[in-house]
Write a structure and sequence with these properties.
This protein has about 100 residues and is α+β, with helices and mostly antiparallel strands. It has helices at about 5-15, 20-30, 35-45; strands at about 15-20, 50-55, 60-70, 75-85, 90-100.
Length: about 100
Amino acid sequence: MTEILIRIKRAVLAGRYAFSEKARMEMEIDGITELDVAESLLNAVAIYKIIRSRSPYRQGRRENLYVIQSTNLEGLPIYSKGKLVKEQGQDLYYFLISSKKAM
């Protein structure tokens, strides 16, 4: 398990995670809950993909988005994409940009 995944899991275990409006809409459409997403993140054994994102709202700085595909405790496959948000060099929380049933 990578250090990044461990940091994501620790943030989720501590309740330090948040959902974007897009993630909330996707969850509602697919009928999944925050708990389903949290369980899938805690069940993950690897990060599926890392995307280097560049936002026009940031000063040229790239950020890593982590794609995780894993199941909740009932075996429902869930796809999530998020980023670790840092403040003063420490992980503050995990922000989920996308959360939906995996295909």
